[in-house]
Write a structure and sequence with these properties.
With 352 residues, this protein is an alpha+beta fold. It has three domains: 167 residues, no CATH class; 59 residues, Arc Repressor Mutant, subunit A, CATH 1.10.10; 98 residues, no CATH class. Helices cover 42% and strands 19% of the residues. The chain is built from 17 helices and 13 strands. The strands form four sheets. The chain has a five-stranded mixed beta sheet. A three-stranded antiparallel beta sheet has the order 1-3-2. It is globular, with a radius of gyration of 21 Å. The two termini are 26 Å apart.
């Protein structure tokens, strides 16, 4: 796979539906394996050029998406995700009116401001109960996520060790309102362009398993879909992509994909890329998705890395079976590309 030019960083991130960023170093590498850039370029796109945005989106997890597409993604998620679960309200001991009052107050507090979480808690919590202040301090951003889905909050540049939050409309200098139902269909269209053939269940899982999300999206795309059979199962592709897919040449490919890579996260099941016996090595406890070695589209092993100062990048590969000499040579070349993306002079690879 040839990497895209650095100038196309935001476009590529958008074409794959964003990169998952609860581990920021993994998100930077997810971009770097697809774009000829360094991790500093990803940071510059976020905080200096402002062509990328960071916030909570699909699956309620942090993502990087093109700044110009943020209104689209937030609108699509609002289409099916804005109902508050009674179980969650009971857990945090808030009534629904209290919850929405805080959501609005957070958005108002960020008007023209760049605030750390502590500063946001102090402003919004002033005059409110201690319980509300505790909910706002939640490490998982529970009450900040619906604010982000309404387009009222995204991440700003860190201040020391503290993250900051900003109003997207002001931070990026522009915003457009999009009908949530139309946005959902457009996001599903982009999803299929990147991950099809796929099912509406795959899309539902990718979006966040909100009730009816796949059914609504597929209904909106009904005139654009073509069904295909894969290993006895039905999946869909966009009709405009059928010819493109049929003309694609299968080429030998070796990739080192970082943790939480979109390729691994794109479908509800990973059976098509990982053998059942090795699935637990890829999809690990607490939702952790390992960095993987990809050979011709299939996961052939996992890898870890450390940055060892002057020694450069040290990668340890744990293959699921013995790798050919051609594959190990390809892994070493990819390791050198990763080292370059990290600004390191060399890479050292060990096969466990």
């Amino acid at each position: 796979m040839r990497r895209a030019a650095k100038k196309d960083l935001a476009r590529v991130v958008g074409e794959i539906g964003g990169v998952q960023a609860q581990v920021m170093s993994a998100a930077e590498l997810q971009a770097a394996v697809r774009v000829d850039c360094r991790v500093e370029d990803v940071r510059d796109a976020l905080w200096k050029r402002k062509t990328l945005a960071k916030t909570w989106l699909m699956r309620g997890t942090l993502h990087l998406v093109p700044a110009e597409d943020l209104p689209l993604f937030t609108a699509a998620i609002r289409a099916r995700s804005m109902q508050v679960r009674n179980s969650w309200l009971k857990f945090v001991q808030l009534s629904e009116p209290e919850f929405w009052d805080v959501v609005e107050a957070i958005g108002q507090a960020l008007d023209g401001q760049v605030l750390t979480r502590d500063e946001l808690v102090a402003r919004v919590g002033n005059g409110r109960s201690e319980r509300i202040r505790e909910v706002m301090k939640s490490g998982w951003g529970g009450i900040l996520k619906p604010v982000a889905r309404r387009g009222l909050l995204c991440f700003g540049p860190s201040r020391g060790q503290s993250v900051t939050f900003v109003r997207p409309q002001q931070w990026f200098g522009s915003w457009r309102e999009i009908d949530p139902d139309r946005a959902l269909v457009e996001v599903a269209r982009r999803y299929l362009r990147a991950y099809g053939p796929a099912t509406k269940e795959d899309f539902t899982r990718w979006m966040g398993s909100w009730t009816g999300v796949g059914k609504a999206a597929w209904a909106g795309l009904a005139d654009e879909l073509v069904g295909v059979t894969i290993e006895g199962g039905r999946a869909d592709v966009l009709s405009v992509d059928v010819k493109l897919i049929s003309k694609q040449r299968v080429e030998e490919s070796i990739q080192l994909l970082p943790p939480f890579d979109p390729y691994v996260m794109g479908h509800s099941s990973r059976d098509h890329i990982v053998e059942a016996a090795n699935l637990s090595k890829v999809s690990r406890t607490a939702g952790w998705i390992s960095a993987v070695v990809l050979v011709d589209g299939k996961v052939a092993g996992t890898w870890k890395h450390v940055v060892a100062g002057d020694a450069g990048l040290r990668i340890t590969v744990e293959p699921f079976r013995r790798l050919s000499a051609k594959t190990t040579a390809g892994v070493r070349r990819k390791a050198e590309s990763l080292a370059e993306a990290l600004g390191l002079a060399k890479a050292e690879v060990r096969f466990a």
